[in-house]
Amino acid sequence: MAVLSARTALIGWVLLSLVEFEPVCAQPPLPPAQNPTAASRVSVAPGWGVFRGRDGLVLFHPIGWQVQERAAGGFIAFRPGAGGNATALVFAQPIEKIEGQAQGVAQEVGRIFPELFPGARASRVRPISGNPEVAVAAIAYTAGGQPFKGASMCFKLADRGVVYVMASNPATWIQDGPVMETILKSFFYSAPGPANAAALPAMVPWRDPHEGAFTCPVPQGWNVEGGLQRFSAIDFRPELLATRPDRKVLVRLGDAAIPPLSLPGPMLLGAGFPEGSWYSPDGVTRRLVLRYLPGARFLTDYYLPQRVGGLGNVQIKEMPELSRQEQAKGARMGIASGVDTAEVYFDAQTENGLRKGYGFIQTVCMPIPGSQGEGLWFVSRIFGYLADPPLEPLAGAVLNRMAAGYQTDAAWEAMQLRTAAKVSKIWSDTRRDISDMITSTFQERAKSQDRMHDKWTKAFRGEVVVEDPNTHQRYTVPSGSNYYWRIGAGAEFIGTQTSDPVQLPNHWVQQMRIVD
Fold it and tell me: Is this structure's pTM higher than 0.85?
């Protein structure tokens, strides 16, 4: 469950401050993984070890601590004392259905998990956020004849949520607090993750039925359409669409409906081809005249409105490093080009209900040397999914598996090279690299601390990012308010539901801009 991967200061800060431990200097955080799928390359701090679970859990802990996996991706990490009983522990557990409010769950951990927190008494129970619901409580209990103090937290969105607890002996809380905070901030799940791995169906090979141009793994039992669509000797467009039988998940690689494109330069305009018209430079290939729409703009302004209709909660992430890599490939072949790469998360209201969507896009523009405003451009890569919100992790896992397993047929490639040598060579080189590109894409996504659905998870954790409009410095604050105000020049913020300015005597208060 991606929401468990809480590498954020919010959890540790709230839980630690709730029980009012004296300020101490926490040890440096463990280095975050650049890619959860490559956890073996993550360095481990001296005196710490790493636990790798059967369902993808990767958890850093001090040497001597023990880790036990629980159902649905949960875990408990603890320091054993005399007789093997825990003297400090960190606990995380997803709950598929929560009756009541998050505040009640945080307060009743002793009743919900009596084997771990017997007779736990809660105090200072308070809500942190209203949407999603986030609540915290200080707890105290006795286990194995030893007293414990700690804190519990519950995140709840719709009827699902996650419970976090950290606790230790009151005499060692000062030393244990930063250690437990580091554990909570650094664990993650390697792809496809526990929830995804359990739901991912068997994958079977699928071959292009038209020319045998490519093969790709697809989910067994899903409806699969597509193949290579050929429009001319040099205009061919592969696409693949896999749909779950209940139509709650749709995964796409490529789209044959996207044509080659030309810039609306003076020559085409003078020849009677305005933007939006079609023309054929060789009498066979038809090109659409359209101004260049870099990456994300092509998705949000042109493609997605036509494919899925109105969009909501759009989140865009530019990927300049991937663009530079692809641009360098063209330069080595003597081709001057501009490349734009991005991924987009969005919500869409479809005929089948609300869907969470994701799209990856790469556009390439090749100006004609010496001709002002003239040039060609095309979409070199496009893939994504639409999914019923609870099935978004499954959609991401299927997309990753399909894209990584896509392969161009060598015999078909040789034939196509003979048909149109140089143009086909550019295309085949691009397709040969698709697996590496997909892997790089998901690595890039992991760097933003949430492997499949960053904004979904961030809301689940109760966070929002705000920006100072003057300095453009950004801060992460608890979500749940419509407006945020910074007090003075420090890092203290107030959230309100209305836009009425906050008035504090002897303090300068400035409104922040909500970024994400």
Answer: no
Render pLDDT for 379-391 as a digit per residue (tens, 0 to 9): 999 999 999 988 8
Scan for tokens 């899925």, then name that residue: 308
The DSSP call for residue 501 is: P
Q: Is the pLDDT of residue 35 over 50?
A: no
Rg (CA), the chain: 26
Q: How confident is the model at residue 147 (pLDDT cuts 50, 70, 90)?
A: very high
Q: What average pLDDT does the segment 179-187 reach?
A: 83
In 337-446, which ranges are continuous DSSP H helix? Answer: 392-405, 410-419, 421-432, 434-446
Spell out the residues 6+ positions from residue 388 whose beta carbon is closer than 8 angstroms to its own.
Answer: 248, 249, 353, 354, 355, 356
The answer on pLDDT for 442 being more than 90 is: no
Where b means 16+ CB within 10 Å and e means fewer, 322-361 reads bbebbbeebeeeeeebbbbbbbbbbbbeeeeeebbbbbbb
Domains of the chain: 2-192 (3.40.1000.10), 200-404 (no CATH), 462-514 (no CATH)
* DSSP alpha helix (H) spans, 31-172: 102-107, 109-112
The C-alpha atoms of residue 290 and residue 261 are separated, in whole angstroms, by 6
Query: Is there a contact between 236 and 222 (Cβ–Cβ < 8 Å)?
Result: no
Query: How far apart are the C-alpha atoms of 135 and 154, rounded to whole Å?
Result: 6
Distance of CA 319 to the CA centre of its chain: 14
For residue 90 the two structure tokens come to 């960190």
- Cα–Cα distance measured from residue 411 to residue 413, given in angstroms and rounded to the nearest whole number: 5
Higher pLDDT, 129 or 26: 129
**Which DSSP state fits 438?**
H
Task: Retrieve residue 442's tokens.
Answer: 């998901």
> For residue 275, what are its two tokens?
């933007």
Asked whether the predicted pLDDT for residue 477 surpasses 50, the reply is yes
In whole angstroms, what is the distance from residue 128 CA to residue 108 CA?
17
Q: Is the pLDDT of residue 70 over 60?
A: yes
Helices (H), 51-108: 102-107
Question: Torsion angle, CA of 309/310/315/321, rounded to 10 degrees?
Answer: 40
